[in-house]
Amino acid sequence: MTENELRDQICQIGRLMYQNGMIDGASGNISARLSNNRVLATPSGLAKGFMSPDQLIIVDMNGSRVDRPTAANAHLKPTSEIAMHLECYKQRPDVNGVVHAHPPTSVALTIAGYDFRRCVVPEAAVILGLVPTAPYSTPASVENRDAIQNLIREHDAIMLSHHGSLTVAKTVWDAYLRLETLEHTAKILYMAELMGGAQAIAPHQVEKLVEARRQMGLERPGDPERFCAACGLSLSKAGPVAPSVASADDDLEARVRAVVREVLSELAF
Hints:
Blueprint: H1 3-19, E1 29-35, E2 38-41, E3 57-59, H2 82-91, E4 97-101, H3 104-111, H4 122-127, E5 133-134, H5 142-149, E6 157-160, E7 164-169, H6 172-194, H7 203-215, H8 223-231, H9 252-266
Parallel strand pairs: 5-6
Antiparallel strand pairs: 1-2, 1-4, 2-3, 4-7, 6-7
Helix pairs in contact: 2-5, 3-6, 7-9
């Protein structure tokens, strides 16, 4: 994808985040890796639902502007969360897109102390894995960067307690889709708790989801241990993390749905 195409896509994601209630005002930020030392990022203090492509800013891996200011962005500064974005790229060579948002249901659950590391929603288990919650830290601070530093090595989605979400992926579009999956899952969990409690999927069924996650190249280091601890699995013979393949994202949704249908067909309600 060219730089201009990325600029258009980031603006599209900003509009979707705003329209879907994932952000408000000038909150949230989006970035995409352009090269080993250049990142395209949204500016600070600008409503992400109304950005234009020429307002985006290019920074190096230290957060310094390296683009030539234009009439559209000369007065703007990179997102105040740029340090958190850059930390994701430094820790994860496989990541080319980062999205930070404030999805309301997901954030509300962190405020209530809810633990997202549960095997309840099949799609979430496959696409997101077990989502950790980073301890509260001051937004737009070095503390915020440090809070996700170790977690981002092993997770593609992280909740920031009382604050927001952080999702990463091989493309900025997929990072946005993970945000949608996260908030959709949070709404399901919230409704399930209101209806008497979210019932976990049986361990032998979760094993199928974990294996599907591995085969799709979505497994992260430490996944077997985390699923064993959270979902009562016994995955001592789990294989190594499968390498990502270029075609993995092309049919990801169809493959996830097939696995989910199989699991749901065996569940008794």
